[in-house]
Amino acid sequence: MSWLLVAPIMLPIIVAILVFLVREKGGWGRWLSVVGCVLHLAVSIALLLEVWKQGVIAAQMGGWPAPFGITLVADLFGAVMVLIAAITGLAVAVYALADIDRRRELLGYHALFQCLLTGVCGAFLTGDLFNLYVWFEVMVIASFGLLVLGGDKEQLDGGVKYVTLNLISTVLFLAAIGMLYGVTGTLNMADLHTAVGEVENQGVVVMIAVLFMIAFGIKSAVFPLFFWLPAAYHTPPVAVSAVFAGLLTKVGVYALIRVFTLIFTQDVDYTHGILLAVAAFTMLTGVLGAAAQTEFRKILSFHIISQIGYMVLGLALYTPLALIGAVFYLVHHIIVKANLFLVSGVARRMTGSESLSLSGGLYAASPLLAILFFIPAFSLAGFPPLSGFWAKYLLVKASLDVGHYVIAAVALVTGILTVFSMTKIWAAVFWKPHPETNGSGLVRLPRQEWLSLVLPIGFLAGLTLIIGFFPEPFYVFAERAANQLLDPSAYVAAVTGADS
Amino acid sequence: MEVALALIVGLLVACSIYLMLSRNVLRFIFGLVLLSNSANLTIFTAGRLTRAEPPLVPSGLPFPTELVANALPQALILTAIVIGFGLFAFSLSLVFRAYRELGTLDSDAMRLAEPRPGGEAETEGRDAEQPEAPRSAAS
Fold first, then answer.
1. Which is it for the CA torsion A445, A451, A457, A458, positive or negative?
2. Most CB contacts within 10 A, which of A209, A413, A426, A439?
3. Domain-by-domain residue ranges, chain B?
């Protein structure tokens, strides 16, 4: 079934080429992009079902056997990340129908967007470290383009910081790959799983592991490497920052989880100990940074950082329950976070401002939008019975089980402070009357625009509710995915023993 | 030979870090280029330096007869050079565009996206009502 592994990568790149060719032909590009995302969602579901039935599946590109050629692998964790990327992609593509102006369409927004999806899915499916680097680059180059597309001054300002810091991460990643190749002689991740243990000088391995940790840490915006994120995420159009918020940092987290469960598990006390401290500081600094902000998207940007802390916490504890929590958290978080950014875009359109003090009155104008904000916002904060509650519950329970009371307390305090930020947004943007200071007051959106903006928000909020009210199947799923991560023998067997 | 290359890598990294500590974004970019070149050299050195034949299979034989050099590090470096070149071209044009729009190369003065609380943004033209230029972004 190797085509199932290739399809989630090939499909967006083909769509990217097509939409680029038709970008000057009116609305063709955006609808093609939506159709491409629907197909992408379909193949992602098919891939996940296949992996669920058959276990880990692998395909050798070009027919070269495992440690020599490039391998594509999908275990449950990789497959579910592809599915979530496809869901986010579809939601944002529909949202972009109304959000992206003609100028940015002509510059190639849809093509870059599909390239971004290509890179993200490639990173989730590859089984080779150098190939992972290449997919990171595909993703990062597309994201550079999207971030500065249109060339507004603020975009350029944020873009400079985003680009420079991400390039450092890229170079560190590359150097780490080179050194790892030097000591093991292989870059296939399944092969590395055994090869790394056979290296005589384990000190070098740990050093390389930390280099990977820094490289992925910049990508996933953990403390103290996150400064590019709040500098850039609020500057591009919402349809760009929503997909960034949902997917980009999470690819970094995915890479961290993959590398630190499959390859670097020799000195868990040291490496995962660092991650544990990093997780605590990430949660706290992120949420405190958010408390100091007074603009909708800036608050949300800082919350991305604090949420990354929870996922890293799940990896750092490195117990079965904690990894279940991390997988559950990733799935829940991507949906919720992308959704909150989408809501912020509608709010800006209606109130005319992103600043909390200059907006308001949205609850009176549109109770539906208020409810659709309420669901992801309080899910993010971890209110029962929304999806975030179960994710946080798993992680806090996992940390209490192994006696890390301090980190459990940090996680809970972060939850409370998240409620504070979300209440701040709720009170300022939705509850208080609109200050007529900026002249225009509330804008009523035309019906078609309203539909294409609110439909994806409703769709994602519906998913949040489903995860919240029926967590059982998701838990069972996350449990199997986490078990595959903790015991990679099936993964290794699929890669080294399978023929395409 | 490995020692010499290792020293060169170290020197390159030191120079690039010195350049990247500068507030001038252009210097930063130059430092980044040096850094990515030193990463390439790292891969090259880590892939073992051997005196051997080029990895070519003589005609008529299923495998090479002599000891051949490892071609993989070079393939990796080639990929990395191409990617690095693309990124460098992009970041150079981004910095140029930012310089034209923001009027500065000093990273401390680029505060448009994150203005100091209560203070004025230091870059000029904050509130200037300029029509949005339909020039293409560097993408």
1. positive
2. A209
3. 2-52+70-109
Kindly determine whether residue B87 and residue A141, on different chains, have CB atoms separated by under 8 Å. Answer: yes
Answer yes or no: CATH 1.10.287.3510 is held by domain B2-52+70-109: yes
Q: What is the pLDDT of residues B81-102, one digit of tens each?
A: 999 999 999 999 999 998 888 8
Could you tell me which of A284, A303, A226 has the C-alpha nearest to residue A412? A284
The phi and psi torsions of A237 (rounded to 5 degrees) equal: -60, 155
Contact A313, A396 (CB under 8 A): no
What six digits make up the tokens of A184? 């093991």
Inspect the interface and report whether the beta carbons of B76 and A164 lie closer than 8 Å: no
At residue B125 the predicted structure's pLDDT band, cuts being 50, 70 and 90, is: very low
Euclidean distance between the first and the last CA atom of chain A, given in angstroms as a whole number: 8
Instruction: Measure the CA–CA gap between A306 and A291, rounded to whole angstroms.
Output: 11
Tokens of B93: 């044009």
Q: Does B43 touch chain A (CB under 8 A)?
A: yes
Task: Report the alpha-carbon distance of residue A254 to residue A272 in Å, rounded.
Answer: 15
- A142 residue type, one letter: A
Q: A199-204: long-range contacts at Cβ-Cβ below 8 A with a sequence spacing of 24 or more?
A: A202/A266, A202/A267, A204/A179
Local structure of A91: helix, strand or coil = helix
Domain ranges of chain A: 276-469
A431 DSSP 8-state letter: I
How far apart, in whole angstroms, are the C-alpha atoms of residue A408 and residue A165? Answer: 31
Chain-chain contact of B46 with A150 (C-beta, under 8 angstroms): no
pTM of the model: 0.90
Residues A186, A128: Cα–Cα separation, whole Å: 9
**CB-count burial class (<10 Å; 0-12, 13-18, 19+) for A244:** buried
Q: Tell me, yes or no, if B34 comes closer than 8 A to chain A by beta carbon.
A: no
Q: Please tell me what DSSP assigns to residue B132.
A: P
Q: Do A178 and B94 touch (CB under 8 A)?
A: no
B129 to chain A, any CB pair closer than 8 A? The answer is no
Axis crossing angle, helix B25-46 with helix A153-184, rounded to the nearest 10: 20
For residue A320 the two structure tokens come to 């079965």
Residue A59 has phi, psi (to 5 degrees) of -140, 135
Q: Do A231 and B48 touch (CB under 8 A)?
A: no
Q: Is A73 helix (H, G, I), strand (E, B) or coil?
A: strand
Token couple for A332: 């829940």
Shortest distance between the Cα of B15 and any Cα of chain A, in A, equals: 15
Q: Along chain A (500 residues), what's the average pLDDT of each consecutive run of 10 residues? A: 85 92 83 92 93 88 80 91 94 90 86 94 92 93 90 86 91 93 89 87 90 93 88 89 91 93 86 91 92 88 92 91 92 92 89 80 84 90 86 91 90 90 88 69 80 90 91 90 88 72
